[in-house]
Amino acid sequence: MIKDIKPKWYIGIGVLIVTLIFFIFGAVPLQVHLGMWGLALTELGILVIALIPVFIFKWKLSEILPIKKITFSQLSAISLHFVATYFLVNTVSIITLYFFPDYAQIAESMADFFTSVPFVISLIIMSIMPVYVKKYYTED
Question: 127 and 77 in contact (C-beta within 8 Å)?
């Protein structure tokens, strides 16, 4: 790691601003046009943005973003949580449509987004990829 330039709060603010710009001008069009694949590209884009300062300032990647393997029990819990949430969201959507039938088009758009890829790919994109990205930030 370069001794003169250590991680500072203002570098984090800069990364946040770049990420917000990416969300507005990159993530939204990606997800509108590519659906779930756009969400996967958005998650990868966030990871790339987080890595930019690491490479600019030549920090040791292992010090800034330590990586740990995910255990089978963690993977199982994530998968179970995803499946339960998927069914819960569908149930709430059906109840909401019963009381507010005018929002059927919005519900249909959301369903199209989630079903734009096979269920297993959806599980990987929405449950497993964020865990690996989160591990970059939280594990010691």
Answer: no
Q: Read off the pTM.
A: 0.60
| 113 vs 31: CA distance, rounded Å | 9
Query: What is the per-residue pLDDT across 1-53, written as a single tens digit (0 to 9) for each?
Result: 455 667 788 888 988 899 999 989 999 898 888 888 888 899 899 889 988 88
CA distances in angstroms from 11 to 5, 27, 49, 92, 118, listed in the order given: 10, 22, 12, 41, 38
Distance CA 44, CA 50 (A): 10
pLDDT tens for each residue of 91-106: 887 888 888 877 777 7
Burial 11-24 (b: 16+ CB within 10 A, else e): eeeebeeebeebee
Tell me how far apart the alpha carbons of residues 140 and 137 are, in angstroms, rounded to a whole number. 9
C-alpha–C-alpha distance, residues 38 and 32, integer Å: 7
- Which residue blocks in 7-126 are alpha helix, DSSP H? 9-22, 28-34, 36-56, 61-64, 72-99, 104-114, 119-123
